[in-house]
Write a structure and sequence with these properties.
Largest sheet: none
Helix content: over 70%
Distance between the termini: 20 Å
Mean pLDDT: 93
Strand content: under 5%
Number of strands: 0
Structural class: mainly alpha
Number of helices: 4
Shape: elongated
Radius of gyration: 17 Å
Low-confidence stretches: none
Order of helices and strands: HHHH
Length: 126
């Protein structure tokens, strides 16, 4: 699962860079997926370990980062959309698409982690 984490971290880094460039490099908040991707990458790299305890620790840190990122991306997208609509302006669809993409990537990642954790527990119990 640690190598999968590195792939998802890379996807978030790419999303952050593309979002930042797509906004004309004027909105530094478009780099938020990049920071989540870097965090996943660092802890994913640390999770590549022969020590089961170390691997479990860093994968639990990663799934927590993923869950917080998912909640933050969904919350931010809903807040920004609602604020724009209530102000009577058109929402920034570029930002909404980036937040939606980040939320989707992290939802898939957290789902894969939870399934992996369940499978590991069942294997230990058997």
């Amino acid at each position: 699962m640690a190598k999968t984490t590195l792939v998802f971290g890379l996807l978030l880094v790419i999303l952050g860079v593309v979002s930042y460039v797509g906004t004309g490099s004027q909105h530094p908040t478009a780099l938020i997926p990049l920071w989540f991707g870097l965090a996943l990458g660092v802890f994913g790299f640390l999770a590549i370990s022969p020590s089961e305890g170390r691997r479990k620790l860093f994968m639990h840190i990663n799934v927590t980062i993923g869950a917080l990122g998912f909640i933050g991306a969904v919350g931010s997208a809903l807040h920004n959309y609602g604020a724009a609509r209530s102000a009577g302006v058109t929402p920034d669809y570029t930002a909404l698409e980036a937040q939606g993409a980040m939320a989707l990537i992290l939802l898939i990642y957290v789902n894969l982690c939870v399934r992996s954790f369940i499978a590991a527990r069942r294997a230990r119990e058997a």
